Backbone:
């Protein structure tokens, strides 16, 4: 592995990280405002939608709070490994995935559901679409300053430039939805492969193989760290005792466990794992429809997807989860006294435009993002989740050479904003 070395440049993409060097007083007015917004939306969903929707809003809030509170990164985990050989965050991923597969296995095997509906994991084909999409996503998340979950929680934390990333993420995934039939129908691909149901291993055998793979990956990161003498991640200040639940920072491993448990709860609540970017395609397509674009004729919006396009966005479970993530991150940032809008430089802006477009387009081609394809796919025992992670790391490696072109540094050790 080659260590990337660049001249120091002004790092402007991680204001949350820099501001968190001191534990600030909580922003009480913002906390009250966030709670009020959540309560209004929760009641509205309770009155107008099925019971699952307000529950998913609450789960999304917990997901967003956890992501921000621990600065749990996907983008930064890949970047640190490829730039300086630090694998701490990637090992936290392995813990998260190990807990997830341990929970998903019985849920998927026995169809455990809170509301009695079908329960299915994310199992998608491995082909050109997946490889191209995940590679583009890997580049995009390093330029855009965050992955799909990172974009949402950074928006909730007030990082102004991430609003730019989100807008172009939505545009990119809408274009990807339009082009998707070409990539899935014209480009070669293998049939979806599940370690549990396609190999004869069963869920227990697939669980054993998965745990072994996670152990091997964690061991490799330790070997790389020792060889590269990688710097450790800088610790973040935090409150002590019970106050740490609400303020300061959580250990990465604690957040990894919480995220895995919450993803399993999402699976049992709506019948599919946590996802993010399908809602972006829905939002973008609905906006395009208001400008006269006949999105209903797109191949992406045929079949089961047509119902979502014709319904209110409040009936879309992924949309509700996304709203919850943003509100949860907002509350976490306000509780830590960290919420504030930040400066956008020309380099930030154009990196976010390009990064957002690449992530959006790549997510549609790759059947999801770091959450739906990588986290949800691997937790569902799908081979495509592993391929997504490997190829996205390849995109990350290339992006390390592109970041300085936009005035973005290649962090030395402590960058932990997703």
Residues:
């Amino acid at each position: 592995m080659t260590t990337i070395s660049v001249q120091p440049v002004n790092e402007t993409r991680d204001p949350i990280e820099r501001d968190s060097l001191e534990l600030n007083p909580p922003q009480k007015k913002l906390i009250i405002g966030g709670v009020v917004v959540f309560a209004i939306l929760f009641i509205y969903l309770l009155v107008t939608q099925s019971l699952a929707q307000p529950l998913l809003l609450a789960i999304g809030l917990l997901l967003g709070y956890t992501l921000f509170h621990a600065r749990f990164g996907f983008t930064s985990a890949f970047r640190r490994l490829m730039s300086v050989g630090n694998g701490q965050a990637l090992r936290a991923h392995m813990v998260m995935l190990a807990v997830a597969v341990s929970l998903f296995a019985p849920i998927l095997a026995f169809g455990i559901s809170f509301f009695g509906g079908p329960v299915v994991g994310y199992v998608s084909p491995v082909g050109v679409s997946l490889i191209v999409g995940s590679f583009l996503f890997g580049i995009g998340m390093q330029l855009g300053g965050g992955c799909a979950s990172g974009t949402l929680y950074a928006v909730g934390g007030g990082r102004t430039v991430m609003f730019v990333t989100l807008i172009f993420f939505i545009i990119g995934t809408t274009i990807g939805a339009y082009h998707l039939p070409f990539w899935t129908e014209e480009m070669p691909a293998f049939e979806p492969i599940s370690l549990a149901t396609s190999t004869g291993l069963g869920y227990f055998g697939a669980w054993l193989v998965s745990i072994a793979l996670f152990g091997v990956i964690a061991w490799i990161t330790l070997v790389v760290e020792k060889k590269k003498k990688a710097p450790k991640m800088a610790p973040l200040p935090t409150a002590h005792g019970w106050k740490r639940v609400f303020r300061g920072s959580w250990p990465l491993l604690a957040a990894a466990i919480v995220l895995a448990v919450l993803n399993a709860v999402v699976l049992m609540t709506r019948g599919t794992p946590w996802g993010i970017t399908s809602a972006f395609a829905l939002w973008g397509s609905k906006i395009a429809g208001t400008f006269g674009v006949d999105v209903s004729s797109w191949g992406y919006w045929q079949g089961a997807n047509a119902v979502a396009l014709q319904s209110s966005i409040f009936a879309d479970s992924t949309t509700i989860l996304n709203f919850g993530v943003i509100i949860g991150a907002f509350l976490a940032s306000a509780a830590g006294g960290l919420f504030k809008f930040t400066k956008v430089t020309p380099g930030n802006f154009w990196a976010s435009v390009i990064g957002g477009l690449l992530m959006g387009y790549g997510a549609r081609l790759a059947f999801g993002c770091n959450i739906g394809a990588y986290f949800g796919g691997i937790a569902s025992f799908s081979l495509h989740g592993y391929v997504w992670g490997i190829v996205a790391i390849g995109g990350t490696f290339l992006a390390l050479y592109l970041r300085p072109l936009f005035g973005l540094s290649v962090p030395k050790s402590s960058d932990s904003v997703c």
Q: What stands out?
A: Residues 15-406 form one domain. DSSP finds 16 helices and two strands in the chain. The radius of gyration is 20 Å.
